[in-house]
Each structure stands twice: as structure tokens, then as C-alpha cells.
Amino acid sequence: MADRLHAPGPPHIDGSRLEALLRALDDLEHLEYPAGYDHATTRARFEQLATDLDAAFSCRCDVDRDVQDASHHGRITIPAAATATGEQLVLVLSNFGGLVVCALDNPGAYSDEETDRLVAAEDARRVREVLDRLGLLLVGEDPLWRAYDGAGPLGPHLGGGRTWFERYFDYL
């Protein structure tokens, strides 16, 4: 398993594959979750992610399950004391396509390059192994901070400055 969060190969997705997936999931009719969304299945997957991260890091992660009016399902924070990095890691599970962002400190705090340099190889391996085992896709943040130019409901009527991160990983 790779020793950087954003190293090529599963569970990481990037480049043209990520671009195609983001656009395929971008539904004109569904802002918070996709058509056919199964909350119970997504919640079970999220709970398993939290349980597996607890085990992988020998800790009790802080889990935010009370998310409403958002394109993400929840947020899991691995405490700094449990990481080899010495800083907290934050994972956000989207309601769309099993997409996950893993951020050092908080989403938007570091570029993908900085995150890969600062996150300890042991932590990167543990996160990637858990995500891969659960069939989740790890997405780097850098492509998500681009201006949203999709066909979905984040269009001009909601104002400018929207990003792909907001489309899939934020409150709406």
C-alpha cells in the first residue's frame, strides 16, 4: 500500500477519471444526494468507516453524524494523539459515489502536495487500507477547490464563487 495519501492507485482517484466521475454524479435535480440514494446503506458504510478507523488508529475518533442540508454524509476526525503525524486527520464522506476527502488538520488547510509531505507514511497507509477495504474512493482536495462549472444546481442562480468541494463535501 502506498505511503502517501494521494499516491496513484486504489483507493485514490484523480485526473481524467476523477473529472469524469464528478461530472457524471452532477445531477440537475439532486443537490444533497443522488437519485436512488439509500440513507441506511450510506449510514452503515459511514459507521463502518468510523469503526475501522478507530481500530486502525487504536483510538476513538470524533464522529459528526448530525449533518443536514449538505452534500456530505458526515465527518470523522482522527485525534492528533493517535496519529504518527502528530496532527489530526479529518475524513469527509460525500453522499455521492463513495467519495472521501482526507485532510490534514481541516479541509482546505493544506494543498495535496503539502498533505503528502506532512502526513506520516504509516498514517497514509492506514487510511488508504481502510478506504480500499470499504470500496471508498479517496479524492485529493486540489481539484475540488476549482470553480464549479457543472450542470447541477450550484449554477449562477446561487451566486459565484462555488467550488466542486461545495458540490460534494460541504453544507449547501
Task: Based on the model shown, name its key terms.
single chain, 172 residues, alpha/beta, six-stranded mixed sheet, 6 strands, 33% helix
What portion of residues is helical? 25-40%
Low-confidence stretches: none
Strand order, largest beta sheet: 1-6-5-4-3-2
Distance between the termini: 35 Å
Q: Averaging pLDDT over every residue, what do you get? A: 93
For the sheet with most strands, the description reads: 6 strands, mixed
What is the string of helix and strand elements? EHHEEEEHHEH
* Number of strand segments: 6
β-strand percent reads 15-25%
Structural shape: globular
Report Rg. 15 Å
Number of separate domains:
1
Helix count equals: 5
Helices and strands: which structural class?
Answer: alpha/beta
Structural features, described:
The protein is 33% helix and 16% strand. The protein is α/β, with parallel strands linked by helices. Strands 1-6-5-4-3-2 form a 6-stranded mixed beta sheet. Strand 4 and strand 5 form a beta hairpin. The longest helix has 19 residues, at 39-57. The mean pLDDT is 93.
